[in-house]
Design goal:
This protein has a domain of about 140 residues: Roll (SH3 type barrels), CATH 2.30.30. Helix content is about 5%, strand content about 20%. It is built from 2 helices and 12 strands. The strands form 3 sheets. The protein has a 6-stranded antiparallel sheet, with no helix packed on it. A 4-stranded antiparallel sheet has the order 3-2-1-4, with no helix packed on it. A hairpin with an 8-residue loop joins strand 1 and strand 2. The protein is elongated, with a radius of gyration of 23 Å.
């Protein structure tokens, strides 16, 4: 018999697992312009529960209001530039083809015009490694290298708030509320630590599997956990 697994309960959409997005101040992303050069003024630096770093509220020359993840070194009243003629200094937005190699960048687009998908957490930054015919090779914070379209945009600088992880949580309750603000489940425990009604591996005997960890390809959704139709199991000899 299948169990109601956590991932299935989250998919139901009940209030217990729903993100409190009504508390989020704004969505961080680049403006609607590509190569067109436009200047903007930083009106305010705000704290958003949905982001680990502060957001910078920017008003551009055409009165468009935009929010970006604030890099280190910017302040209220500064003028920033977006476009092909912008200089590679913190806060400015350029296309990857216009950014010199070795420059630290953040809020990197996956596809041109999507507003930014990569490197948006506090203290993070990526670095342009080389420019090839296939695209721009970027070293991500995970130390993985990924090739991007030269027309993808990125913001110059290292994201502010790098000391966030230096302060310990001290209590499990602090960690719980920090995760709850972003709809992240906490704590995470293994299936063997759960009760029998919550997981196929759960039982009253903690960390003792009462049944095999292999599941057939045709197992029902609440039972399809562990090794799914493995070709072989056990140690290689």
């Amino acid at each position: 018999m299948g169990k109601r697994l956590i991932q299935q309960r989250r998919g139901k959409g009940s209030a217990a697992y729903r993100a409190p997005s009504f508390r989020y101040r704004a969505k961080a992303g680049h403006n609607r312009f590509g190569e067109e050069t436009i200047k903007g003024k930083i009106l305010d630096l705000i704290k958003c529960p949905g982001h680990s770093a502060p957001l910078a509220k920017i008003e551009y020359e055409n009165k468009e209001i935009c929010y970006i993840v604030a890099p280190e070194g910017i302040r209220v009243g500064d003028t920033i530039t977006s476009g092909s003629e912008a200089k590679p200094k913190p806060g400015n937005t350029l296309q990857l083809k216009d950014i010199p190699s070795g420059t630290s960048i953040n809020n990197l687009e996956l596809n041109p015009g999507d507003g930014g998908k990569f490197v948006k957490s506090s203290g993070a930054s990526a670095k342009i490694i080389e420019k090839t015919k296939k695209g721009i090779v970027v070293l991500l914070p995970s130390n993985k290298r990924k090739t991007f379209d030269p027309n993808c945009r990125a913001c110059i600088g290292i994201i502010a708030g790098s000391g966030r992880l230096e302060k310990p949580m001290l209590k499990a309750g602090n960690n719980f509320y920090a995760k709850k603000a972003k709809n992240k489940l906490y704590p995470k425990v293994s299936g063997t630590s759960m009760n029998a009604v919550a997981h196929p591996f759960g039982s009253k005997s903690s960390h003792q599997k009462g049944r095999p960890t292999q599941a057939s390809r045709n197992a029902p959704p609440g039972r399809k956990v562990g090794s799914i139709a493995p070709k072989r199991t056990g140690h290689k000899r």
